[in-house]
Design a protein that fits this description.
Structural class: alpha/beta
Shape: globular
Bound molecules: manganese (II) ion
Oligomer: single chain
Length: about 475
């Protein structure tokens, strides 16, 4: 079949405080859909995963979002919760849904949606039905397709394989006891201990729900620093170094590391290539802060703690020597991070002065971009000579050994890494700036009748 085919991914459309898809990005998508919809001849748009961000859409807080199977496998949303999240996304982004509806209202226009690790919710039948309805299509329309397999091989383009790519990322794959749940026959849906069906919760999703979403509400760009290993190298390191990051960030990162290294995995090196850094005390950033704070600073924290209901019956200095009391304090602060958001950050000019941070920076040596590329080389069997992925948010292109590999990157803002990236102050995660958080919106295009794909730049913005 002769048609134009375009592939985009990782729009992460949600709502409210955690939404990464701002008005400017949405306007770019609307123009893109208008351009692609107006091409001569039939056209198929493929959204290759993480189109909608259910993990960050409202409601995103509360214990009702998590459960376990009888064997202790982590689960998250029910179908009803996914629908509630979808309703939030629709309310926040009528322009996106209207533009897609308009695209599909034209002659010979098709839309294929692959779920990614932020939107496995497309495995729920009611979520798919609602999308079909919102886009103005009949329930049996052949204009929309949800690819519930790992990879999508478009008809007539036998040389092309499209995958989101999270299968090759241990943190975000959907394996249960070593077996992948990601197909129409075996969806990532299991019954919880109380008999309710819920989505399987991959490690990355649990991490977002427990640690990152709350931080994202206060530091809106915290989740734009991807891949995660790089976030830890740059901002994790600075959060844990005394005087570099605000105390709320230090508490959150300490809890993240505790989760990553102790709770979730028996062999942490399988996950992020972590050697817990010997010379960073990652568990007690608050203790270190208390020991180094001035008397007025300690008084300020003590008053805030008492006002928030923390039973403080000794001085903070004294408490810092009692591990059990410190654990309670960390728990309390993790639940009420606003208490310490104004504490801890001193002089950003001192960044880079402490050698301890360097071992944390070096410890996280995973390279997600190369892991996905390796996955692509293994998946390219039979007549496949071109593989397109997303997921890492790092746009990438390589032609080697007869295989063409594209990663389209993300349609969100990304963090611009410097050549030798130093640790950075957390306040930049609160500030929108095109210099620090630019965007480059890319798509892969196959022209009608052609047997090769190219990666094209739609729009980019890097300056005010
Ligand atoms: Mn992804």
């Amino acid at each position: 079949m002769h048609r134009s085919l375009a592939i985009i991914s990782d729009l992460h459309i949600s709502d409210g405080l955690l939404d990464d898809f701002d008005d400017e990005l949405e306007a770019q998508l609307v123009e893109f859909l208008d351009w692609f919809g107006n091409l001569q001849g039939p056209a198929e748009l493929v959204i290759n995963g993480d189109f909608l961000d259910f993990v960050q859409a409202s409601p995103w807080e509360g214990s009702a979002l998590e459960a376990e199977t009888i064997d202790g496998i982590p689960l998250c949303f029910t179908q009803a919760q996914s629908l509630e999240k979808l309703a939030s996304i629709e309310r926040a982004h009528p322009r996106t849904f209207d533009a897609l509806k308009q695209f599909l209202a034209r002659q010979s226009r098709h839309l294929t949606i692959l779920p990614g690790n932020h939107d496995p919710d497309f495995f729920w039948p009611a979520v798919r039905s609602r999308i079909v309805e919102r886009l103005g299509l009949r329930a049996d329309s052949n204009q929309i397709r949800f690819c519930l397999d790992r990879g999508y091989r478009p008809a007539g383009l036998e040389w092309l394989l499209i995958e989101h790519g999270h299968h090759y990322d241990k943190v975000n794959s959907f394996h249960v006891n070593g077996h992948e749940h990601w197909s129409a026959d075996e969806p990532p849906i299991l019954a919880s201990a109380d008999g309710e069906h819920r989505l399987v919760e991959c490690v990355g999703t649990r991490f977002l729900i427990r640690f990152l979403n709350g931080l994202d509400a206060r530091y809106p760009y915290v989740d734009n620093v991807k891949p995660f290993s790089r976030f830890l190298r740059i901002f994790g390191a600075s959060a844990l170094t005394l005087g570099w990051g605000p105390l709320d960030a230090a508490v959150a990162v300490a809890k993240m590391l505790g989760f990553v290294t102790n709770t979730a995995f028996t062999r942490s090196d399988d996950l992020l290539g972590i050697d817990p850094p010997a010379n960073i005390d990652q568990s007690n950033p608050v203790v270190r802060w208390i020991k180094s704070a001035t008397d007025p600073e300690r008084d300020e924290l003590a008053k805030a703690l008492q006002a928030s209901g923390f039973a403080l019956d000794t001085s903070l200095d004294f408490l810092a020597d009692d591990p059990a009391a410190v654990a309670l304090l960390l728990e309390h602060l993790a639940r009420k991070p606003a208490l310490v958001a104004s504490l801890g950050e001193r002089d950003p000019a001192l960044l880079g002065a402490e050698p301890g941070t360097l071992s944390l920076k070096e410890a996280y040596s995973v390279n997600e971009t190369e892991d996905l590329y390796d996955g692509a080389t293994n998946a390219a069997i039979g007549g496949i000579n071109t593989v397109v992925m997303g997921h890492t948010h790092e746009s990438f292109q390589r032609v080697q050994h007869g295989l063409t590999y594209f990663n389209t990157g993300s349609w969100t803002r990304y963090y611009r890494f410097a050549e030798e990236e130093p640790s950075r102050p957390w306040r930049i995660l609160q500030q929108r700036s095109y210099e620090t958080f630019p965007y480059s919106l890319r798509y892969v295009l196959v022209k009608p009748g052609e047997a090769t794909a190219t990666m094209e730049l739609w729009r980019e913005r890097a300056r005010e």
